[in-house]
Amino acid sequence: MFTRLFVSPLSAADYILGYMIPLLPIALLQIFVCLATAMFLGLPFNKSILFMILVLLIISPLYISCGLLFGTLFTDKQVGGIFAIFVNVTTWLSGTWFELDMIGGTFQAIAQCLPFMHTVNAARAILHAEYADVFYSLIVVIGYSIIMTILAIFMFKQKMQGSSK
User: Fold this and answer.
1) Which residues neighbour 110 within 8 Å (Cβ) at sequence distance 6 or greater?
2) Count of domains in the chain?
3) How does pLDDT run across 135-162, given as a tens digit for each residue?
4) Which of the residues 44, 67, 92, 105 has an alpha carbon 20 to 30 A from that of 156?
């Protein structure tokens, strides 16, 4: 399938960004559905919800770029299973299910170096209207998003060059 794409004059960045941009409205729809469900289950509606939408939309490119990177590195059949494992690992490393302080040690140190804990911290800070605490976490997430996007572009370019030989 990739072979037909590679004959076009588009660059690897065009392909990756061309995949990312249309996925942002889908991410926005997911955000609305999840927040509506949360409000149905008891989350009170206030101005923090509006900020939450913006923060979650800023976080979305991180996961989109990871998906595109995995899609570049693995076959269609492999990506589903690998990304399912990735989602589970990220929830463990993010502190979604439990506070990372409970485990501490090396696990917590690794989690603090990765962006996933920062995504949860940003969302929690918004919900608690602690807006000043959001910025550091978002800077980390945005930095990782840029790195993952560049890595996806680089790997896609390698794949393009490998198939043209």
Assistant:
1) 93
2) 1
3) 999 999 999 999 999 999 999 999 888 7
4) 92
